[in-house]
Amino acid sequence: MLRAILKEYLEECGLRVFAYESMPDLEKELEEKRPHAVLLDIVLPRISGIEILKMIKKIDRRIPVIMMTGYADESERLESLRSGAYALLTKPFKNLEELFHIVNNCMEHFIETLKTEQLTQEVEERYRREKMNALELDFLKNLQHMIGETEDPLFVLKNANTLLKNFLDFDFFGALLINDEEIAIQIFSGMEEDPALVRTMASVLVRKIPKGQIKPGQRIVIQGVAREEVGPDVTDIETVVVELSTANRSYGYAALYRQKPFDAPEWSIFTRFCSHITLTLEKISLFNEVKTLSIHDGLTGVHNHAYIVGVLDAEVERSRRYNTTFSVILFDVDDFKLINDEYGHLAGDQALRNITQVMKESLRTIDKIGRYGGEEFLLILPETDLDKAAIVAERLRKAVETAGLRLEDKSVRISVSGGIATYTPGIESKKIIKIADDNLYRAKKEGKNRIYYENI
After folding, report:
1. C-alpha radius of gyration, the chain, whole number
2. How far apart are CA 132 and CA 145, in angstroms?
3. Structural contact between residues 298 and 159, judged by C-beta atoms closer than 8 angstroms
């Protein structure tokens, strides 16, 4: 009756309770249920509660056990405490609320113990990691120095090969990197290159790629040369291959090659160091992405305002130093508000993307385009005088007008107006923008969809 009352009451208090009429498989139950506390009578039929207490403590000394008794003598109470009981409760209980508070405090104490143990384990693990040997620290330091200094993953792998030789014995270090266009394989060695051996070792890496991960059209490139085949199956060389991957992305695979087998500690060391290589590749990738995002407009993909103005300042300085000239064109989309109002802002966004794409396709590699304002675009044309800039601007204007904007079943007419300014000795970048803006204003005033280029 008491067991049923306690179970019902404690469940009403929000606890999950398991009650037993007879002695269960204790080890199995503790493993499955993982209790935060155990309530146990000292006096039980066929077995002493103290014996059960001792069995629990042998299985897991951390589990708190609260002993209950209405008949036990003083020696049994003391024996319970000596055996590790958390608390003793005397039946009949004064009230169930008092019992709940004792149980609740007991459970909270146990949970805090678990948290402390977990924290201790984390601290110990952190301490173990911090005790990496000097070579590994040097390895990490050298990899970290590459972040921000290179955008080439092969440069990282080449240096990793040199660093790995300080603590692992191998003949060749190979790496396979996967991107959208190709699968690039590089084999690093201090010995004279044997093309057949390189292709044979490359096969080890290629065969690690899961089926379906190679996309249609992807080329296999070994040492910078595209190959249709990588080589025969490897039979006379020992390898250790580790995937270069994070939780979000697989960069490829790395491998060591030599004649004699690699043992477990060598596998472990190489795996650990490959994780450092992977994190370096990831950081370089993220660094490049952040760098790209920081200088590009999120909607159109062209340079943003801050960057294109910086390019203009640099071009002014270059022209001043080398006595050259350049021109800028400031374009503005005509009646852009009407496009947003009539067709929606998504159509307006698509119009801006279309315009920049049309312009980019018509510009030289050395020309720069940036989003100067909402629907304004600034183009910088190095080594271009006013007359040539006018020809370029007119060509771009016509291209935008011809392309228009396709929205489902209708075509929307789009046009731009442009103002041109050309660098002259002594002029500053702000003045160039002012001239281009004034000319743009004149083009708008005179009817839009035109270019104005008087160098005021």
Report:
1. 37
2. 19
3. no
Which uninterrupted H or E stretch holds 197? helix 195-206
Please name which of 315, 45, 278 lies closest in space to residue 143, comparing C-alpha atoms: 278
Tell me, yes or no, if the pTM score tops 0.70. no
Q: Which residues pair with 245 in a beta bridge?
A: 250
Pairing of strands 250-258, 416-422: unpaired
Strand order of the β-sheet with 87-90 is 38-41, 65-69, 87-90
Whole-number Å distance between alpha carbons of 393 and 397: 6
Q: How far apart are CA 336 and CA 329, in angstroms?
A: 18
Whether omega for the bond prior to residue 92 falls within 30 degrees of 0, making it cis, is yes
- Which of 300 and 155 is assigned the larger pLDDT? 300
The Cα–Cα gap between 128 and 130 comes to 5
* Model confidence band, residue 380 (pLDDT cutoffs 50, 70, 90): very high
How is domain 134-290 classified at the architecture level of CATH? Answer: 2-Layer Sandwich (3.30)
H-helix or E-strand spanning residue 405:
strand 405-407
Would you call 383 helix, strand, or coil by DSSP? coil
For 305-452, the fitting CATH number among 3.30.70.270, 3.40.1190.20, 3.30.1360.20, 3.40.1110.10 is 3.30.70.270
Phi/psi for 334 (5° steps) reads -75, 135
Contacts within 8 Å (CB) and 24+ apart, 207-215: 208/176, 208/241, 208/243, 208/253, 209/176, 209/178, 209/183, 209/253, 213/178, 213/250, 214/183, 215/180
Write down the number of H helices and E strands in the chain: 14, 16
Residues of CATH 3.30.70.270 domain(s) within the chain? 305-452
Q: How would you class 95 by CB atoms within 10 Å of its CB: exposed for 0-12, middle for 13-18, buried for 19 or more?
A: exposed
pLDDT of residue 81: 87
Tokens 């130093």 belong to residue: 321
As its CATH architecture, domain 2-127 has: 3-Layer(aba) Sandwich (3.40)
Cα–Cα distance, 436 to 376 (Å, whole number): 12
CB 38 within 8 A of CB 89: no
Q: What is the bridge-based pairing of β-strands 368-371 and 326-333?
A: unpaired
- pLDDT value, residue 210: 81
Q: Considering only CA atoms, which of 427, 421, 411 is closest in space to residue 452?
A: 421
Report the alpha-carbon distance of residue 124 to residue 134 in Å, rounded: 19
Given this model, what pLDDT does residue 221 score? 85
What tens digit of pLDDT does each residue of 158-215 get?
888 888 888 788 988 999 988 877 888 888 876 666 777 787 788 888 888 887 777 7
